[in-house]
């Protein structure tokens, strides 16, 4: 695969993503805690077969990316966005607007299945066999040290999200659960604030 472009710290000011109606987003981190671990790579795709890859090394300042992700006219598609949103807010002070989360949507409208991972949705909804071999790769390496297979893995984490979203929306509408899903997507901003405040537990639990 070679339909991608790398950027250091921020995307270009004249990027075509500013004119997109929807963008799939995924991040790679050094660990799972945004307060102690680093955001190392961010993948973006507008539904085409081209992926924009932003590599973060020593500089967390991305005004062009912030403009795009905070633009409420652009739908941002995540899979388990809770993780990505925490890193984006903690490291880049980005409050992502207008979100669709494929994992949340699947849990709401596909109760017949206990499997809601990205690999599961690729298989069940769009008949794609997604390999997760490089899920635990070292993303802190320099760009030139990435293996082509590692880059391909990162790209595929966003390449299929538009198609998955489309299939999930059909089921949400059929099951009259689109409104519920949208309310959950809206709550993600508050869920992110709770996580960053150290309140990762279910606050609604007895």
Describe the model.
With 206 residues, the chain is an alpha/beta fold. Helix content is 39%, strand content 16%. The protein starts with a strand and ends in a 10-residue tail after the last helix. The model has no long low-confidence stretch (mean pLDDT 95).
Keywords, please?
single chain, 206 residues, alpha/beta, six-stranded mixed β-sheet, 7 helices, 16% strand, globular
Describe the secondary-structure layout.
Elements: E1 4-8, E2 22-29, E3 39-45, E4 51-55, H1 63-69, E5 75-78, H2 81-92, E6 99-101, H3 102-109, H4 118-126, H5 148-159, H6 161-174, H7 178-196
Parallel strand pairs: 1-4, 2-5, 5-6
Antiparallel strand pairs: 2-3, 3-4
Helix pairs in contact: 2-7, 3-6, 4-6
Give the helix/strand class.
alpha/beta
First-residue to last-residue Cα separation: 49 Å
Query: How would you spell out the order of helices and strands?
Result: EEEEHEHEHHHHH
User: What's the story with the biggest beta sheet?
Assistant: 6 strands, mixed
Short description:
The chain has 206 residues and is of the alpha/beta class. It has helices spanning 63-69, 81-92, 102-109, 118-126, 148-159, 161-174, 178-196; strands spanning 4-8, 22-29, 39-45, 51-55, 75-78, 99-101. The chain has 7 helices and 6 strands; from the N terminus they run E-E-E-E-H-E-H-E-H-H-H-H-H.
């Amino acid at each position: 695969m070679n339909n991608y472009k790398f950027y250091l710290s921020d995307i270009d000011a004249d990027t075509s993503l500013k004119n997109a109606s929807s963008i799939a987003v995924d991040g790679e981190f050094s660990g799972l805690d945004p307060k102690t671990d680093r955001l190392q790579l961010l993948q973006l795709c507008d539904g085409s077969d081209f992926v924009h890859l932003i590599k973060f090394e020593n500089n967390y300042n991305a005004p062009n990316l912030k403009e795009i992700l905070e633009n409420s006219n652009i739908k941002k598609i995540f899979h388990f966005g809770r993780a990505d949103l925490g890193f984006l807010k903690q490291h880049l002070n980005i409050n992502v607007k207008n979100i669709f989360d494929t994992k949340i949507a699947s849990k709401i409208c596909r109760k017949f299945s206990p499997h809601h991972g990205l690999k599961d949705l690729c298989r069940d909804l769009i008949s794609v066999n997604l390999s997760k071999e490089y899920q635990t790769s070292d993303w802190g390496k320099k760009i030139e040290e990435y293996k082509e297979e590692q880059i391909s893995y990162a790209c595929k984490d966003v390449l299929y999200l538009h198609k998955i979203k489309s299939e999930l929306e059909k089921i949400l509408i059929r099951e009259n659960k689109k409104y519920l899903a949208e309310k959950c997507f809206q709550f993600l901003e508050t869920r992110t604030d709770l996580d960053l405040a150290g309140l990762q537990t279910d606050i609604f639990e007895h």
